[in-house]
Amino acid sequence: MNRTFEKKLTELSKLKGYQKPAKVSDAIKLDSNENLAIKKEFQTELIREAQKRCDVRQYPLGDIDNLIAGLAKYLKIPANMIGVGNGSDQILDLILVNLCTKKTKILTSEPTFGFFEERCKLYSIPTIKIPFSERMQLSIDDFIKKSRSADMIYLDSPNNPTGFQFKTSELKKLIKVFKGPIIIDEAYVEFSDSSIIKLVKQFDNLIVVRTLSKAFGLAGLRLGYFAANKKITGIFSRIIQYPYPLNTLAIQCGILALEKANKITSIFTLIKNERKKIIQNLRKTNAFDVFDSNANFVLFDAKGADTRVYNALIEQGISIRKLGKLGNHKGCLRVTVGTPEMNSKFLLAIRDLLE
Q1: CATH class of the domain at 18-38+264-354
Q2: Using CA atoms in the order 260, 212, 86, 121, what is the torsion angle rounded to 10 degrees?
């Protein structure tokens, strides 16, 4: 092995990489922000129907165009303003590796989506980070001020892991001031009350990244998409993106899911109501700092008792995400909003733990 290659491997080995949650067998899974409120039977039927529509022996020629047409109808924006990827992760990765350099300064929040942060480290792209407040809030004025020193902005809104979301008027103010590309990651937006995706028709520097993983319960199929001006999407789709970024079965499942979108929207309301219930019940205990959320999860600070709470829940067959220190909060945990039954078991286990 030559020295240059070995040196590069050594450098990469020092990076942390994106940390996936530990796989816990036979546990209620509330650790990955998956939409388990959608019945598995619905997805099973979706896949069965998709199988009838495709032949996996063939490359998916033209099928992506049909998926984009479905997205255009769902989003109410032109098809030539939409691009797709193998999960929103891949879209973000391709943007970073093709449109940024080691001199590109990216303004973002602290914390932000872990994958994006680790990818910036992988490509040695410098970041400027604005920390959340004590109550896990951000000020748009701080970003406007710091944007003078940045070449690109990335904000996940709603934010993962805090659940914080900027108001549309605030983001519009930032987009107007900033002249470089601004990426707004709306992976969790269906669980909130607003989206800025239609602003791509007004601002050429705006890129809105979304996914079918969360709201549509298709995390395992890796279906991401984004909206931007047609020059960006055209170059991305023709040149940057892989020739066949999505597999045939996933494409057909995505098309079918969008066709059945009206059957899924009631789940968004259910999750919002369940989220409210979780927040209220956790706050009643007076044992945690619990933060507002516009996503399908709730972040709370166990005030140093996070390991004890996490392990106690594991013993009761419930897996949530242990995040540890976030800002001045030293014992953060994040729980996904699941089915009403899952959420009730989680809250009951918390009550038993505190008694």
Answers
A1: alpha beta
A2: 180
What residues have CB less than 8 Å from 106, skipping those under 6 apart?
100, 120, 125, 126, 127, 128, 150, 151, 152, 153, 154
**pLDDT, tens only, 164-200:** 999 999 999 999 999 999 999 999 999 999 999 999 9
- pTM for this prediction: 0.94
Q: How far apart are CA 319 and CA 24, in angstroms?
A: 7
For the chain, the domains span 18-38+264-354, 41-262
- Residue 93 structure tokens: 């990765």
User: CATH: 3.30.420.40, 3.90.25.10, 3.40.640.10, 3.40.309.10. Which one for 41-262?
Assistant: 3.40.640.10
**pLDDT tens digit string along 194-240?**
999 999 999 999 999 999 999 999 999 999 999 999 999 999 999 99
Q: Residue 124: left (phi > 0), alpha (psi -120 to 50), or beta?
A: left
Q: Which amino acid is at 19?
A: Q
Q: What is the 3-state secondary structure (H, E, C) of the chain?
A: CCHHHHHHHHHHHCCCCCCCCCCCCCCEEECCCCCCCCCHHHHHHHHHHHHHHCCCCCCCCCHHHHHHHHHHHHHCCCHHHEEEECHHHHHHHHHHHHHCCCCCCEEEEECCCHHHHHHHHHCCCCEEEEECCCCCCCCHHHHHHHHHHCCEEEEECCCCCCCCCCCHHHHHHHHHHCCCCEEEECCCHHHCCCCCHHHHHCCCCEEEEEECCCCCCCHHHCCEEEECCHHHHHHHHHHHCCCCCCCHHHHHHHHHHHHCHHHCHHHHHHHHHHHHHHHHHHHHCCCCEECCCCCCEEEEECCCCHHHHHHHHHHCCEEEEEEEEECCEEEEEEEECCCHHHHHHHHHHHHHHHC
- 281 Cβ partners below 8 Å, 6+ apart? 347, 350
